[in-house]
Specification:
By secondary structure, the chain is α/β, with parallel strands linked by helices. Helix content is about 25%, strand content about 30%. Strand 9, helix 4 and strand 10 form a beta-alpha-beta unit. The structure holds ligand PMT.
Length: about 210
């Protein structure tokens, strides 16, 4: 299969010095790319600003902002059968970018923000019979919010993680996730390395794809 994966944070610049972003390191998304490639899939990895090396055999596209990530997803999605949206996309960006460093004296302590587009929702019309998998990063029991996102974004399944749980979420080498499906079924994956979690997610995608293909 050809699998498109987004990973890492996006970075929303205010001026050449400052930006809004989040704690994503790209580890989970890069593990997905590595796992998919190891299982013989063709992988395109759209990466926000992270310091990780590209997994062997994976095609990497680097972007910085949410708008650039959206452009890259729209460009590459048509050539893929699966889209895994693991990136932590910034929901907001500064309304105005200053090409020169903002001076403290000229700032009043408020930053005007505008909403970034939701990438999964924006590309939903391109879904056809592609498989879309999302993630939900929640603080606390993730099920209710993750189920809302699963339905709202029209996903085939969602990977829910409580990013406050020990060993889970941002920057860790391990994760603990629950897979939630549109028919209400759920699967709890125990704490494991991000590569093991990624391999399990890719195998669920393979199972779904073989059922769909029959
Ligand atoms: O990168 P690591 O340090 O390894 O951390 C891993 C992780 C915590 C980032 C990862 O496991 C994870 O949970 N990724 C999703 C983070 C996120 O943004 O979740 P969300 O609940 O805000 O978004 C829900 C879904 O919509 C996600 O699939 C997201 O990629 C997508 N989204 C969100 C906002 C937006 N503007 N467009 C989107 O497509």
């Amino acid at each position: 299969m050809r699998i498109l994966i987004t990973a890492g944070p996006t970075r929303e610049p205010l001026d050449p010095v400052r930006f809004i972003s989040n704690r994503s390191t790209g580890k989970m998304g890069f593990a997905l790319a590595q796992a998919a490639q190891a299982r013989g899939h063709e992988v395109t990895l759209i990466a926000g600003p992270v310091t990780l090396p590209t997994p062997d055999g994976v095609t990497r596209v680097d972007i910085e902002t949410a708008l650039q990530m959206l452009d890259a997803v729209e460009c590459h999605l048509p050539a893929h059968e699966v889209y895994i949206s693991c990136a932590a996309v910034a929901d907001w960006r500064p309304a105005v970018y200053s090409p020169t460093k903002l001076k403290k004296a000229g700032m009043d302590g408020t930053i005007q923000l505008v909403r970034n587009p939701d990438i999964l929702k924006t590309v939903r019309p391109l879904k056809d019979n592609k498989l879309f998998v999302g993630f939900a990063a929640e603080t606390g029991v993730p099920d209710a919010e993750a189920t809302r996102k699963l339905n709202e974004k029209g996903l085939d399944f969602i990977v829910a993680n409580d990013v406050t749980a020990p060993g889970a979420g941002f920057a860790t080498d391990t994760n603990r996730v629950t897979l939630l499906y549109p028919n209400g079924t759920r699967e709890d994956l125990p704490l494991a390395s991000k590569l093991e979690i990624a391999t399990a997610i890719i195998s669920r995608i393979e199972q779904l794809r073989s059922v769909t293909d029959c």
